[in-house]
Amino acid sequence: MSNMVSQLQNEKLLPLYTVHNMDLLDTVESILLENNLHFIEVTYRSDKASAAIKYLSESGKLIVGAGTVCDLETAKNAIANGAQFIVQPGIDADVLRYCKEKNIPIFPGAVTPTEIIQAMNLGLTAVKFFPANVYGGLKAIKSLGGPFPSLKFIPTGGINKENYQEFIENDSILAVGGSFIISEKTVAIDNGVTASKNLKELVSKINK
Ligand code: 3PG
Question: Does this model's pTM top 0.85?
């Protein structure tokens, strides 16, 4: 397991963040760092994704990844802007090969045994499990742990402050992801006060 992946496994939270307002990024960065979290997945769901990845990467304090990467062009753009890892909602073999060439960790989405076998045969040891709430949640992940005991999952989609603990207690879970960890909407309410308080609570329950 790479250092980055074992660090993610220790931290257990992979914040999924969509940027519309670049001005909030410094606050987001500080809130994550104050809580000893070092990862952020910036999604390609807004036209600010490249700029935000570049901005956060240049700051150099967080391990910045790109999410919602659905094609090679986006992967190349993300990596050129400093992305250190790639997350995909599903599997794209071209993106996987490119990331392997560049030595960039990648977590593609895989929810069925067929997709999981495909991902494993492409050399992966961890996949995203999305949308977790639709594809059977923890119950499905526990069942998949039978045939695939060494595979790790990063469930996202419907993970929230009520259910995240249950997920991370399971050995097959590398980390949980989602917008419940920190979102632009929450940060914008009061310049991060509420977001920081929420995150402190999430983290304190992990370390208990
Ligand atoms: C994803 O792409 O992983 C999901 O959209 C995250 O889902 P959430 O909005 O429920 O956190």
Answer: yes
Q: Which atom of ligand 1 is nearest to the CA of 133?
A: 10
Which residues make Cβ contacts (< 8 Å) with residue 101, sequence separation at least 6? Answer: none
What is the total residue count of the chain?
208
CATH superfamily, domain 3-207, is: Aldolase class I (3.20.20.70)
Tell me the CA distances in angstroms from 125 to 14, 41, 107, one per residue in order.
17, 19, 9
Domain ranges for the chain: 3-207
Residue 2: predicted pLDDT: 85
Query: What are the residues facing 152 on neighbouring strands?
Result: 126
Taking the chain (208 residues) in runs of 10, the rounded mean pLDDT of each run is 92 98 98 97 98 98 98 98 98 95 97 97 96 97 97 97 96 97 97 97 87
The catalytically annotated residue of 11, 12, 41, 152 is: 41
For residue 130, which of 90, 160, 165 has the smallest C-alpha distance? 90
Interval between CA 120 and ligand 1 midpoint (Å): 23
Assign residue 140 a region: left if phi > 0, alpha if psi is -120 to 50, beta otherwise?
A: alpha
128 carries an active-site annotation: yes
Alpha carbons 142 and 86: distance in angstroms, whole number: 25
How far is residue 157 from each of residues 56, 64, 179, measured CA to CA in Å? 24, 20, 9
Residue whose Cα lies nearest atom 11 of ligand 1: it is 178
